Amino acid sequence: MRTAAQLIYFSSVSNNTHRFVEKLRLPQGQAARLPLHTSDDTLEATEPFVLILPTYGANGGKGSVPKQVIKFLNVESNRKLLRGVIGAGNTNFHESYCIAGDIVAAKCGVPHLYRFELMGTTEDVSRVHKGLEEFWKQQSSLSAA
Amino acid sequence: MTTSAEAPTSSSLLSHVEAINWNRLQDEKDGEVWNRLVNNFWLPEKVPVSNDVQSWATLTEEEKVLTMRVFTGLTLLDTIQGTVGAVALIPHSLTQHEEAVLTNIAFMESVHAKSYSSIFSTLCSTKEIDEAFRWSKENPNLQRKAQIVMDYYHGGDGLKKRVASTILESFLFYSGFYLPMHWSSRAKLTNTADIIRLIIRDEAVHGYYIGYKYQRALEQETPERREELKAYTYDLLFELYENEIQYTADLYDGVGLTEDVKKFLHYNANKALMNLGYEAMFPSEVTNVNPAILSALSPNADENHDFFSGSGSSYVIGKAVETEDDDWDF
Asked: What share of chain A is helix, strand, coil (3-state, %, to 5)?
């Protein structure tokens, strides 16, 4: 499925990340959720986007990036449109806090813009909302220059 | 494979038992969490706590007594969770695989409880240890928090048990977890802190999983009952919170850390609520955990890791690098 959403995210059946995205109250079509199962066809991004992905506390980072996200980023055209990453997680995981976000950011050479825990607090929601608005403004002025 | 929650598979363990088939999961989260817990398995004997002996000697008598009391309090909670809490949830499981995951959780709680004894035997004398255990039996606020949780574990309401269990895993431990993080931030008892971090990591998975199962079970309830349980959750958390404030003062007033611990309590109470699918209760003004404590918990949780709060000049256009498919084989 093709999507022009500026925000693409993975959320497992726990729906924590999904709840966070709902709280952002983005306009219709501006957020797209990756399929729950790797057996499903992944999304095809058509516009630059930011990816939100959770970390569930793996041991030392191995196996931290959800397979559904790997499948999505294995599509070269998706990778080329990735502009930034937002990580979800839990500080209880020590050095592995949001490590899936670190791994993808390093691999794709994009900034890890923000980290939040579980489904995010009200403050996280407003900071990401404002942060993303400014980020996209910067992106469009930089690419026009 | 389906993700729908199914009716309870066993209301009584003895009446009817089917062989568990891990090749047919009703809830994929069971398999995922089982694997995570197994991969995270650890034993206290692997951590060289004896390297903390010198550091222990630098603590004042008051600090030593405080540390031992904190650890006996944590031992009590882990004992409850291992032998009563996690086991009490088994008859309410939504799937057979959940039953199996809960046995893993129960066992790990017993490992946690034992690891405090392993710290004690390395650092303290038998007399000091006995004295600390006696204190834990006699402190009314510690006993009260144990009693409140135990009452729900002995009750018949599976959803309320899950709430109590998630609050224990995600909130009640933290008045105790604060102290080893405090010592670690001052480069004291760092090996002990490593053990506590392993426990903290496990509790996060336990709270996440039990809270998730609570939400799945809640889906099968009427709107009235859901409202009742939501009100119950906030009431129970508040009741335990008030008791926790007293308990925190009993422990930390002497060293002047009570106010700092309270912020950590608020922060974790919010996370307990989120694990249950509810909105955070404490506003950010009272959850601003001391950065030294937060960084002892997770070195990459500070402001330096918030790109959005940086100055505009640090913004860069993200440019993707070429990668091959096998690069993504993590």
From this structure: 40, 20, 35
Residue B201 touches partner A, C-beta closer than 8 Å: yes
| Chain B residue nearest residue A69, CA to CA | B328
Tokens 């995922």 belong to residue: B32
Q: Please enumerate, as own/partner, the contacts of A129-136 that have beta carbons within 8 Å and a separation of 24 or more.
A: A129/A24, A130/B308, A131/B307, A131/B308, A131/B309, A132/A6, A132/A7, A132/A50, A134/B308, A134/B312, A135/A50, A135/A83, A135/A84, A135/B308, A135/B315, A136/A6
CB-CB under 8 Å, B321 with A108:
yes
| Nearest Cβ partner for A103 among B208, B298, B330 | B330
Domain count, chain A: 1
Q: Consecutive 10-residue runs of chain A (145 residues): their mean pLDDT? A: 96 96 95 95 97 83 86 94 96 92 92 95 95 92 76
Residue from A91, A123, A128 whose CB has the most chain B CBs within 10 Å, to mutate: A91
The answer to whether A79 faces chain B, any CB pair under 8 Å, is: yes
Q: Is A26 on the interface with B (CB under 8 A)?
A: no
Name the residue among B212, B277, B320 with its Cβ closest to that of A110: B320
Out of 3.20.20.370, 3.40.1410.10, 2.60.40.10, 1.10.620.20, select the CATH number for domain B28-39+49-300. Answer: 1.10.620.20
In the numeric block, which tokens belong to residue B4?
A: 């729908």
Q: pLDDT digit string (tens) for A113-128?
A: 999 999 999 999 999 9
The answer to whether A9 faces chain B, any CB pair under 8 Å, is no
Measured between beta carbons, the chain A residues lying within 8 angstroms of B3 are: 13, 36
Please tell me the pTM assigned to this model.
Answer: 0.91
Query: Which residues of chain A make contact with B28, given a CB cutoff of 8 A?
Result: 13
Task: Measure the CA–CA gap between A72 and A81, rounded to whole angstroms.
Answer: 12
pLDDT digits (tens, 9 = 90+) for B87-125: 999 999 999 999 999 999 999 999 999 999 999 999 999
Domain spans, chain B? 28-39+49-300
Active site residue B116: yes
* β partners of residue A117: A89
- Whole-angstrom distance, CA of residue B9 vs CA of residue B94: 6
A126 in contact with B at a CB cutoff of 8 Å? no
Element (H, E) at B228: helix B223-252
Reference B37, options B283, B201, B243; nearest CA is B201
Q: Which of A19, A95, A117 sits opposite B299 (nearest CB)?
A: A95
CATH number at residue A88: 3.40.50.360
